[in-house]
């Protein structure tokens, strides 16, 4: 755990970059520092590995004041990733990744083996190992930066806007990759960004800072979106806050109707008077095939004889309420088909059931 206790940084010219910052970064979680330019994010981050020392207060790493640990020792346990990767231009990729192991005196083969293993871990083709940084795309360079930070398996990772310099699609894939890695590695990560969407996507908890280096709010993404502490946080969170919050709420609470599922092979006479304007037709393995309006059922035969309309699905309990809502918008029936992990239909979430679930969510919001 990293503890900021009344931390202040006043630069020599009098600028107060960080003002009386107190917060905890729990072990094994991603804590995001987010806020506008100049709010002291980088300064806060660099005080953890002593690239900058505070002028007031203390930072504790697992209980030890970092200013009592000499910087090289401290940094061995802390990986650091920056924007545009900051790779050494005249070293091959494999040697960039092996930087810290070399410094630690590992033998060359062991360090390079570790580097190769990490390149694969971050989703890079091992063939790139012999190239120089300029021969890689921006996104590939960022992955190398992450691999390099992980090389000596440090328990703590500091990431300062690591994905800001790449286009939105590459950025999204780097974010996914980080979450995937973190699910395996459980590092203690402090991630700095000025992008609130990135913050709520990656953070277990998000610290919103305001200019002057003051903490405005520290909460989980769901709580932040539901209950911003003040106008500054509310404005910083921006538009669509209500919709975005649904991403953090499980679809488990949605009431499902099984009576609206009909087998494709059923006799239409047995489903004709079903209670509901639309029916979800499923195959012999219970997989959804599409919607049919009760009025469009053929006079005889099976629902499979009708023209089936497109449908949206969500995995009940695993997907969020946002995915379920999206699925209703993809179906002319206005309802969504709930499936299990294997893709079998388990029920129908009607618009009314969605409304009930959304009303429960709205009751929990403020501001
Ligand atoms: N060496 C320095 N001397 C004086 N002031 C500094 C120094 N470094 C940073 N500052 C100031 O401290 C404040 C916080 O800077 P910092 O780099 O921590 O902000 P940041 O939140 O990381 O911003 P950005 O999003 O633009 O990276 C700013 O006002 C900055 O100008
Ligand atoms: Mg910065």
Automatic annotation (TrEMBL):
Keyword ATP-binding included in the entry's annotation: yes
Superkingdom, natural source: Bacteria
Domain ABC transporter: 2-237
GO molecular function: ATP binding
A Pfam family the protein falls into: ABC_tran
Sorted UniProt keywords: ATP-binding, Nucleotide-binding, Transport
Family indicated by similarity: Belongs to the ABC transporter superfamily.
Protein's recorded name: ABC transporter ATP-binding protein
């Amino acid at each position: 755990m990293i503890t900021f206790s009344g931390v202040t940084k006043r630069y020599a010219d009098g600028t107060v970059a960080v003002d009386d910052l107190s917060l905890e970064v729990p072990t094994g979680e991603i804590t995001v520092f987010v806020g506008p330019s100049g709010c002291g994010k980088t300064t806060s981050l660099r005080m953890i590995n002593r690239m900058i020392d505070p002028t007031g207060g203390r930072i504790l790493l697992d209980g030890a004041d970092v200013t009592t640990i000499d910087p090289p020792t401290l940094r061995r346990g802390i990986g650091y990733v920056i924007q545009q990767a900051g790779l050494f231009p005249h070293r091959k990729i494999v040697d960039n990744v092996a930087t810290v192991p070399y410094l630690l005196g590992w033998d060359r083969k062991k360090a390079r083996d570790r580097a190769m293993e990490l390149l694969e871990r971050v989703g890079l083709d091992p063939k790139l190992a012999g190239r120089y940084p300029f021969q890689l795309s921006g996104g590939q360079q960022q992955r190398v930066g992450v691999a390099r930070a992980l090389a000596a398996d440090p328990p703590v990772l500091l990431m300062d806007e690591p994905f800001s310099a790449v286009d939105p699609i590459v950025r999204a894939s780097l974010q996914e990759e980080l979450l995937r890695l973190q699910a395996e590695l459980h590092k203690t990560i402090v991630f700095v960004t000025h992008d609130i969407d990135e913050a709520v996507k990656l953070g277990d908890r998000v610290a919103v800072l305001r200019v002057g280096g003051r903490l405005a709010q520290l909460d989980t993404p769901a709580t932040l979106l539901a209950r911003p502490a003040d106008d500054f946080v509310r404005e910083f969170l921006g538009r669509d806050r209500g919709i975005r919050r649904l991403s953090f709420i499980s679809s488990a609470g949605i009431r499902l109707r099984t009576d609206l599922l009909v087998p494709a092979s059923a006799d239409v006479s047995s489903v004709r008077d079903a209670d509901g304007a639309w029916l979800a037709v499923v195959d012999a393995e219970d997989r959804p095939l599409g919607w049919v309006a009760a009025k469009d059922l053929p006079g005889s035969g099976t629902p499979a004889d009708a023209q089936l309309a497109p449908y949206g699905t969500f995995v009940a309990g695993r997907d969020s309420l946002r995915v379920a809502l999206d699925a209703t918008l993809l179906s002319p029936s206005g309802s969504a088909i709930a499936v299990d992990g294997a893709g079998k239909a388990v029920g129908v979430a009607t618009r009314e059931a969605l409304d009930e679930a959304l009303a429960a969510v709205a009751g929990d919001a403020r501001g």
